[in-house]
Amino acid sequence: MSTGVMIALILIVVAVVAVTAVLALRARGTHGGGLKRRFGPEYERTVAGYDGDVQAAERELTERVERHGGLRERPLEPAERERYEARWTAVQERFVDSPREAVADADRLIAELAGARGFPDGAQYEEQLAALSVHHADQVQGYRRVHRVVVVPAKAGSGGAGTEEMREALVEARGLFAELVAPARQGNGRHRPGTTPDDRRTPARSNGHGTPWAFTRRQAKGS
């Protein structure tokens, strides 16, 4: 084989390797961009949880999508929806006198509601949370926060979160509750994320800033 042919073959191999590398980088960039768009703030939280290791975080998020991306949420019957809304209202009202118990109630209520919508059972918290992050990425952090308030004191044996931290967790968790309890999307009929039907029906019970009266620092005991 002549020297010219050898050089030509080497150049072809180098070109093929270069093209393959470029395509792989583009595919990775597109995949990562898709995960960022899909998960939003959950993407950044996952990357932070891996100490900035983007590849490890994206592997986890990809696995979540593979496990739960095909999940179809079961719609609630009107009577079911009303019962869940009434129970959330009771949680808000209980917060005034018993903040920690109210947060625990909210944690159980969201777990039960998610299970009713077709997500993994609340007894499998991590798996349920992973599934919720795939379909409700913008709101899932609130559920994580209320669950942490309930679980951490039990593990650490400490006093746990203060009233203001619990109030903030409950307010944030309300966003996920609102999305899960809302009827199927029909034009403009879906509730605005972050508000419950009860919030919209009873504005007199708000402090004027979209926060239910039960969550104001002035009225909650222990604040």
Topology, element by element:
Layout (H helix, E strand, L loop, with lengths): L2 H37 L1 H9 L4 H15 L9 H18 L3 H18 L8 H11 L4 H17 L6 H19 L15 H5 L22
Helix pairs in contact: 1-2, 2-3, 3-6, 4-5, 5-7, 5-8, 7-8
What order do the helices and strands follow?
Answer: HHHHHHHHH
Q: How many DSSP E strands?
A: 0
Global morphology? elongated
Distance between the termini: 86 Å
Number of domains: 2
Model regions low in confidence, pLDDT < 50 over at least 5 residues = 22-30, 186-219
Q: How much beta, percentage-wise?
A: under 5%
The helicity comes to: 55-70%
Q: Give the overall average pLDDT.
A: 79
Structural class: mainly alpha
Main pleated sheet: none
- Count of alpha/pi helices: 9
Region (Disordered): 182-223
Protein name: Secreted protein
Organism: Streptomyces adustus
Transmembrane segments: 6-27
Brief digest:
By secondary structure, this protein is mostly helical. It has 2 domains: 66 residues; 138 residues, no CATH class. The protein is built from 9 helices and no strands.
Key terms for this structure?
single chain; 223 residues; mainly alpha; elongated; transmembrane helix; membrane; Secreted protein
Write structural notes for this entry:
This protein is an all-alpha fold and 223 residues long. The chain folds into 2 domains: 3-68; 78-215, no CATH class. The chain is 67% helix and 0% strand. It is built from 9 helices and no strands. It has helices at 3-39, 41-49, 54-68, 78-95, 99-116, 125-135, 140-156, 163-181, 197-201. Helix 1 (3-39) packs across helix 2 (41-49). The longest helix is centred in the N-terminal third of the chain and has 37 residues, at 3-39.
